[in-house]
């Protein structure tokens, strides 16, 4: 892709954009010329990502958005249209992890929290993004699943359930709208060096060593590597890719 060219004149909406994969992807869209709405539940983090985009010469709108609340999503998208006039691509990335617990030990409220953010949040985002894209004749959406969306994870049943469900939701939505020029796909990252993984590993050398030992490639992934995949999936270069779950995990799920 040509820097500051591929997405010139287009608008991207990114949730969970305050850190990690979301921030890296928001920055990547901006480098390719897109105006970017940076949506995150943490206002300060969202503003920092927007500042970084503007620092590199891009256009950004920072919005505070809890993806479990339909009113927050609608308000964020309304602000996007008011500021930029359109919506071309959406990266529905906001998500939360779970503690390592066997299924019978997971509290019901915790299970519902994971479903609310990781699954219902993706559903609600698509529900309000798609009508905006239909009005202008098309668009592209990428939803974040996980390597845990294609295999079972010991001690991670609630998380894995939500991430499997994101793939099913996305594949079905892809069929709903493919004929109307809206492409829906999925990115399924493996272990990526993000704040979420710091929490998952406990931020210790031992915890990270365990993670790396499970990666055939011999290292954790970088947020920028996932960002590049998302930017490609949303681009015209991937125009024949519909309903696909792209696993980017260093070989972890096939080992």
Blueprint of the fold:
Blueprint: E1 11-15, H1 20-31, E2 35-40, H2 43-55, E3 60-64, H3 70-84, E4 89-92, H4 108-136, E5 139-144, H5 157-177, E6 182-189, H6 195-201, H7 205-213, H8 223-234, E7 245-248
Parallel strand pairs: 1-2, 1-4, 2-3, 4-5, 5-6, 6-7
Structure description:
With 255 residues, the chain is α/β, with parallel strands linked by helices. The protein has a single domain (11-254), classed as NAD(P)-binding Rossmann-like Domain (Rossmann fold, 3-Layer(aba) Sandwich), CATH 3.40.50. Helix content is 46%, strand content 15%. The protein contains eight helices and seven strands. It has a seven-stranded parallel sheet, sandwiched between helices. It starts with 10 loop residues before the first strand and ends in a 7-residue tail after the last strand.
Distance between the termini: 31 Å
What is the CATH-assigned architecture?
3-Layer(aba) Sandwich
Number of strands: 7
Reported by name, the CATH topology is Rossmann fold
Rg, nearest Å? 17 Å
Structural shape: globular
Q: What structural class do the secondary elements suggest?
A: alpha/beta
What is the element string, with H for helices and E for strands? EHEHEHEHEHEHHHE
Please state roughly what percent of the residues sit in beta strands, choosing from under 5%, 5-15%, 15-25%, 25-35%, 35-45% or over 45%. 5-15%
What summary fits the major beta sheet? 7 strands, parallel
Mean pLDDT: 95
Lateral strand order in the biggest sheet: 3-2-1-4-5-6-7
The CATH superfamily appears as NAD(P)-binding Rossmann-like Domain
